[in-house]
Amino acid sequence: SNTFYAELARGIEDIATMYKYNIILSNSDQNKEKEFHLLNTMLGKQVDGIVFMGEDITDIHIEEFKKSPVPIVLAASFDEQNETPSVNIDYTQAAYDAMKHFI
């Protein structure tokens, strides 16, 4: 099983706790309809911000993010239009480093 998202969520929680924020974690099971439902649920809870981790950011996502009254940041994902702030790694460098390690 892939532990990437679990480790990422743990890191986010550690930093949030350091700054006295609480985390509400939701899982959409990669279901777009559920993603939008959860996004609206979070906004209804008057959260301070949203860290969104999704694999396929669509134009509909971007439009919903733009309407949000709170900041939304993408983690481990990005929108191709570069309209939503994101936190990512340098994937080209990571691939190079991985291949260098194996060679």
TrEMBL record:
GO-annotated molecular function: DNA-binding transcription factor activity; transcription cis-regulatory region binding
Domain Periplasmic binding protein/LacI sugar binding: start-end pairs: 2-102
Coiled-coil segments: none
Gene3D superfamilies membership: 3.40.50.2300
Annotated Pfam families: Peripla_BP_1
Keywords: Repressor
Alphabetized SUPFAM superfamilies for the sequence: Periplasmic binding protein-like I
Name the UniProt record assigns to this protein: CcpA
Gene that encodes it: ccpA
